[in-house]
From TrEMBL:
<dbReference type="Pfam" id="PF07969">
    <property type="entry name" value="Amidohydro_3"/>
</dbReference>
<feature type="domain" description="Amidohydrolase 3">
    <location>
        <begin position="65"/>
        <end position="550"/>
    </location>
</feature>
<protein>
    <submittedName>
        <fullName>Amidohydrolase YtcJ</fullName>
    </submittedName>
</protein>
<dbReference type="InterPro" id="IPR011059">
    <property type="entry name" value="Metal-dep_hydrolase_composite"/>
</dbReference>
<dbReference type="InterPro" id="IPR033932">
    <property type="entry name" value="YtcJ-like"/>
</dbReference>
<dbReference type="InterPro" id="IPR013108">
    <property type="entry name" value="Amidohydro_3"/>
</dbReference>
<dbReference type="InterPro" id="IPR032466">
    <property type="entry name" value="Metal_Hydrolase"/>
</dbReference>
Length: 629
């Protein structure tokens, strides 16, 4: 039974009664003082008891919700340390997700069906979370295939930060013609006649991709809330209970934050969000930062929604682009002066920050600025700061980051771009891109995340698989064993490290009394499943602050109700989000089962032939008569 009756238990004191109890579980707490447990009790959103079934009996009354974990693994809620959750929520129900789709054939079929139900004036948009390497065909769709699938409905397909494909209808809707100039850092691919072909290239800047996407219709009013709630529910599906929002392009403050602020005010967030502020206009960054410093301060908010600092970009000129099919971008000389002004302003006003940096060449230049400010006592000074991504950071730069009190947040962008990196820089260079073990060996806080939704998928188990195995979604092994981490370490990077990056490590990231009641009952035991099954793990029951925010399988129907997906033609209403596929271990077992059936049927057929004189009673040693000489 998924739920347990409480009749026969002694009555608990009213002030001692748990709101929710999970029993018969295999709990990995993350707490060295009590690493394993069998039961957990939560009251008023916090863990009150972690122990065994007998320890929670006295906390149960008729109003306690008692959940039988059925012997399954329970972990602390996952925390994505770099997720564009606010922007993703505002667009979620408009997007056709190819996350997890195993073949291009299936992806194009989904697109064709969605185009048929999409009303005039709307676009079909596939915006990140997939790679050509995940498809059995190992290739991108062609523009011709998009035109065939949707001759009249605009289609925009984003592939990582590298390129976008548009059909004829989308080119018309975006007003791209022979006379449209290439934007700086981007290329509109043209045919012999000079007309756009439908391919856009980041060369190396992704701004051409995002600015084109911004021409598509957006949600309005209540649909923004509904979309965000469904996106958060989708994240809860995988055991996520927290995320650090990295802001991003086309995410303006405060306008684009109104939806999550409203949901937080109404108690309707199912995911805890610590957010950042990202200056949107080149040349106006310092003015934006000054304005925000006068409006808000880090820590403003509550345990569900709070400001964490600035970034992931502070100065546009300091931002490198991780388009590994293009050469490393050469950043303009002299950006350090503006970066110094921005960082000084933040630190003097008690603001932490995060900084996008893909390449060590960028990180070295940024560290020169920080070390200059350290001479004035501004580093380390108690304000949390970190580098995001850091794929090619050197060991020397890691030493400098550690000396300045910094941290790092890594994402599994190499899961989706590893093959492109290897083609450009070679397999040897890829073995430590990024050098995760070297980061941990220096005692740095290293948070893990996805950088979803426009690059990697938001599925955290794909990222955890990458950390543990060093393999891409195309199954290319890129990391040597010495740059991989254990499952316990990977989980701590996805729980405890994220809490340290937001200063919440004394209330979040482990399961112990006094900490938030955030946890997930998993479909499979992360610590024992075969490595290739890790990306297929989901949560069957996710609890955030003592609230059941997602429930499936035996627990279906126990979670909070949310409004139906709207608009009704939404791709999410028909396909959902991440496309789950059969676990490889099950697929293999099923194949073996079918083979056993085939062998059995073959033997029955042989006996039938023997009985009728069509075959000798002694079996032939030849398996296939085609090979008889």
């Amino acid at each position: 039974m998924a739920t347990m009756p409480v009749a026969g238990f002694p009555p608990a004191r009213a002030d001692h009664v748990a709101d929710i109890v999970v029993r018969n579980a295999k709990i990995y707490t993350g707490d060295p003082g009590c690493p394993q447990a069998g039961a957990i009790a939560v009251k008023d959103g916090r863990v009150t008891v972690i122990g065994e079934d007998a320890d929670v009996v006295e906390l149960i009354s008729a109003r306690t919700r008692v959940i039988d974990a059925l012997g399954r693994r329970v972990i602390a809620g996952l925390n994505d340390s770099h997720l564009h959750v606010i922007r993703g929520g505002l667009n979620y129900v408009l997007e056709l997700r190819w996350d997890g789709v195993p073949t291009l054939r299936q992806a194009l079929a989904m697109l064709r069906e969605q185009a048929a139900r999409t009303p005039k004036g709307q676009w079909v948009r596939v915006v990140g979370g997939w790679s050509a390497e995940q498809f059995a065909e190992k290739r991108l769709p062609t523009v011709a295939e998009l035109n065939a699938a949707a001759p009249d409905t605009p289609v925009f397909v984003l592939h990582l930060y590298q390129a976008a494909l548009m059909n004829r209808a989308a080119l018309k809707a975006a007003a791209y013609t022979k006379d449209t100039p290439d934007p700086r850092g981007g290329q509109i691919v043209r045919g012999r006649d000079g007309e756009p072909t439908g391919m856009l290239l980041a060369a190396p800047s992704a701004l051409i991709l995002y600015s084109t996407l911004s021409a598509a219709p957006v949600l309005q009013g209540a649909d923004l809330r509904t979309s965000t709630r469904h996106f958060l529910r989708e994240l809860n599906r995988f055991g996520l209970t927290s995320a650090i929002d990295a802001a991003g392009g086309f995410q303006n403050f405060p306008d684009n934050y109104d939806t999550v602020v409203g949901l937080a005010r109404d108690g309707q967030l199912s995911l805890r969000i610590a957010y950042h502020l990202f200056p949107q206009t080149p040349g106006q960054e310092i003015d934006d930062l000054r304005r925000w410093i006068a409006m808000v301060k880090p820590g403003d908010g509550d345990e569900w929604l709070r400001l964490n600092g600035a970034g992931e970009s502070l100065i546009w000129a300091a931002t490198d682009f991780e388009n590994f099919v293009q050469p490393r971008p050469e950043l303009a000389a002299g950006y350090e002066e503006n970066l110094e002004t921005a960082v000084r302003l933040l630190l003097e006003n008690g603001w932490g920050f995060r900084l996008h940096a893909t390449y060590d060449e960028t990180i070295r230049r940024d560290l020169n600025v920080f070390e200059k400010l350290a001479g004035e006592g501004l580093f380390p000074h108690g304000n949390r700061w970190l580098f995001d991504h850091a794929e090619t950071v050197s060991r020397h730069s890691l030493d400098r980051i550690a000396a300045l009190g910094g941290a790092v947040s890594v994402q599994n962008r190499m899961s989706f771009q590893g093959e492109a990196f290897v083609r450009r820089y070679g397999a040897a260079a890829a073995t430590e891109t990024p050098p995760i073990r070297a980061m941990l060996d220096r005692g740095l806080t290293v948070g893990a995340g996805t950088d979803a939704t426009r690059v990697s998928s938001y599925n955290p188990w794909v990222a955890l698989h990458w950390l543990v195995t060093g393999r891409t979604v195309g199954d290319l092994a890129i990391y040597a064993p010495e740059n991989r981490v254990s499952r316990e370490t990977a989980l701590s990077m996805y729980t405890q490290a994220g809490a340290r990056l937001t200063g919440e490590h004394e209330v979040k990231g482990v399961l112990k009394p006094g900490y938030y009641g955030d946890f997930a009952i998993l479909s499979d035991d992360f610590f024992t499943v075969p490595e290739h099954d890790i990306p297929h793990i989901e949560s069957l029951l996710t609890v955030t602050g003592g609230r059941i925010v997602y429930a499936a399988a035996e627990y279906e129907g126990l979670d909070e109700a949310i409004p139906a997906v709207h608009p009704t033609w939404s791709p999410v209403a028909h396909y959902g989000g991440y496309q789950a596929t059969v676990k490889p271990s099950i697929a293999g077992a099923r194949q073996a089962e079918l083979m056993a059936h085939a062998v059995s049927e073959s033997e029955q057929h042989r006996q039938w032939r023997i009985q009728r004189g069509f075959a000798p009673d002694t079996p032939t040693t030849v398996f296939d008569t085609c090979f008889v000489l």
